[in-house]
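Many introductory courses stop at the sequence. We go one step further.
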Amino acid sequence: MHEPRVLRDTAVVEVRDLHVTFPTRTGPVHAVAGVDLTLHTGRCLAIVGESGSGKSVTARTLVGLAGAKARIRAERMELDGIDLTTLTDRQWEQVRGRRAGLVLQDALQSLDPIRRVGTEIGEALRNHRIVERPQLQSRVLDLLEQVHVPDPAQRARQYPHELSGGLRQRALIASAVAAGPDVLIADEPTTALDVTVQARILDLLAARKTDGAALLLISHDLSVVARLADQVAVMFGGVFVEQGTAAELLTAPAHPYTRELLAAVPTLHAKGTRLSVPLPGRAPGAVAAPDACVFAARCPLAVERCRQAPPVVELGGGHVARCWRTDEVGAAGIWLVSESAAELPIAPEAGPEAELGIAPVAESAAEPKLVAGLPVEPTLAAGLPVASVVEPKLAAEPKLAAEPKLAVELKPVAGLPVASVVESAAEPKSAAEPSPTPVIEVSAITKAFRLPDRSHRQVVRDVSFTLAAGEALGVVGESGAGKTTVARIVLGLLEPDAGSVRVLGEAWSGRREAERRRLRSRIQLVPQDPLAAFDPRYSVERLVGEALGAPGARGARGRRSRIAELLRLVGLDAGLLGRHPRELSGGQRQRVAIARALAPDPAVLVCDEPVSALDVSVQAQILDLFADLQDRLGVALLFISHDLGVVRHVCDRVLVMRDAAVVETGPVEAVFGAPREPYTKELVAALSPSG
């Protein structure tokens, strides 16, 4: 087997002035514009940023998968001395897998659906002649065991669609590390994993780093970045706007965009407050190469000089930022706050070309009231929104933490607010008052599935709970714990083998669908993957309108008006009505899914991992949207997630599931603040970047 080198801190990938453009009808899109990066053996560089910022294009370019239409130009792009700009397709096949492994976010699309998992993993071993054929099966099982796949012999014989999302992702990671590559590029490798398995996978990646592999990590999960990365690059509009060590950048960010990302992290301190602050301007991307600050149109601190390309400011220790106002942002802790953030409308999310970095201007966004607690006078300069800011007296730079921690632990400087907490935005949300009649009553439900060998596997065992009107109940647990099966039983898509479900006081389970039809509209699903759930032939108008039922007395005009109203409710422009699912960004599709779910006026939304695939800033907008909908409509949420930070921010109560059963339940703060069960303690411990 080819083992990565053990020599530490040697440059194995060097990229200078990388540009990647894609042709469009309106001109070339600069997805990556002048990026420099170096990957060292035994170290990890993480790239963070929102959808469309250029992260994945950068990663795919390094393994020759940017796409046939990509136009790549670089002063230098080398892997272990090999000039990557000159490789043929056949030469790339020898590089991928052996010298560079790639883990993508969507394992279901990455794994071959017609090949067994073991065959897929064994391909890299065969192609690069890592082991002899007699040892192939044994090595495949070893790899599956390394990534904590239970019963590896059985899983190796299964097809990708027969595995849960978490198991598919682990199988994909096993395939990527099979040949022991010198470089491992991981694009959102833990998105589909529960917190305990995520911790094990991060330990596996850390072990590869210890063995001498160079890691490039693409992630929207800043806790993952804090745990694994040595260096962090923040990307916006195809440009690295800030770079530095994880310890410095995550605790003392010097660029306004970095602070925006850190402020969007759902944390204990952010509970009950808004995570996103609507800002005017465009999302990342430009049809022309950037000749100004790429963040200027979004930045609440932009001034006239921001219309020019910003300098690269050296902050010491390799910490650099592209910003005209680095001194003010870094030293004084300037950040956008609002007198009443809870009342701000939700700005429409990035546009349909977000993956290539193009997005329309938001339809409406509230003007910032204060910057660092100081008045701001919005002005316009050549179409760019800028701000005239009363300059505060600068204070000393914050002391840097010795260990990587999330920016939620930033300390205030000179009495000014920091990015992580907007405490004045809203009072913490209290638990919903119990309803006389719960909207959902689940009593001792049990479910088993028959396996191919005719044995039975218990997936839900004696689960009971109630859900009150306006309440948010979280369901957490590792992959295969039974969370999604519980949701499907509550939705009436599966019948329990034993036990019962009641909806709005009426019997729900054990009835024919015709008998349930009257209540069907009162309980709706927000899926994890709207792209898979939507009919690709349908427009947004038809997708949402279908959930409204027949036009009735409202008529066609009133129906269209109602659809547009639902889109506005979830922060989307009515101009999207004619678009199809693949013409929308991930955040837009999720908002359409929520609008569709709201169309029949439900009492309950069942949310199955609704933000797991979204970047941190779009996730913040969706979580704020759920909070707004609860406040405005009183809708109850059954919220299934592997992200304990999200559940802690959104939910009033939580069920912790393991091995098909509920092992602990109670108010969120009680369960997460003082867990009693060993498994819950393990989950909570895994939340800590240093845990």
